[in-house]
Amino acid sequence: MAEMSGQDYDGTSTTLLLQSENRGDIEKRNVGGRRPRETWKGEYVKSIVYAGLDAIVTCFSLISSISAARRSSVDVLVLGISNLVADGISMGFGDFVSSSTEKDVAANERAATEWDLTNDKRPQLLALVQHYQHLGMDINDASTVVAIFAKYKDIIVDEKMTVQKRMLPPDPSEKPWRNGVVTFAAFLLFGSAPLLSFIVLIPFTNSDTDKFIGGCLLSALSLAFLGIAKAKIAGQNYVLSIGIILFNGTMAASAAYALGLILRNIAADD
Predict the structure, then answer these.
(1) Reported pTM
(2) Which residues of the chain have pLDDT under 70?
């Protein structure tokens, strides 16, 4: 790796870099087109959205099957709330275990990568140069980049993990228990939406059908909200995202309702 000698950025190199950036700006202006939508960033946003989606679909499907079996609103509340809490605990603990495992794997992989770069440095750096070449970088540029990175131990370790092992370095600030708590709270919050009508409508009607219809409307509104959130996260079209989420909830609830109706008829015949 004779080519991998350090290169300082003198005035000439800086001028060339600025000229390259100016050319890039001109090319961007020439390309035109609409700038892609910014995504919705946040440490726990994804956990909230996907836990909420799972909670609404699960709880709505449950009350659909119970309603199809012609059970009372009291049965809906008892079974719905108990199932909501049990599933919320399971989801939260599952998120905690998953996040902890992912963090531990990343930490172990980083330690192994650091050992390789300390005890077998030359082949590791050569492999990184070859990787950049495969991406289309010139051999001299690839060697220069790796030579600069190699001056900084933490940077070269993280770079090798990211570009070659397809793994992000562990984040010391990440707390897996927080992911579990957020998932649990989001599951309870959004999962309670289909059940609210069975509580709110108690003073106004005794009809279980009306309460079930109210649960359908609240579920649809909650799913639409999560569809908007999903579109913000992924930078997708709002209408398409809402449509997909509503379709998912409708299909799951319809299947649960139909199955409950069939099983009720079978039980009645017996």
Answers:
(1) 0.69
(2) 1-43, 268-270
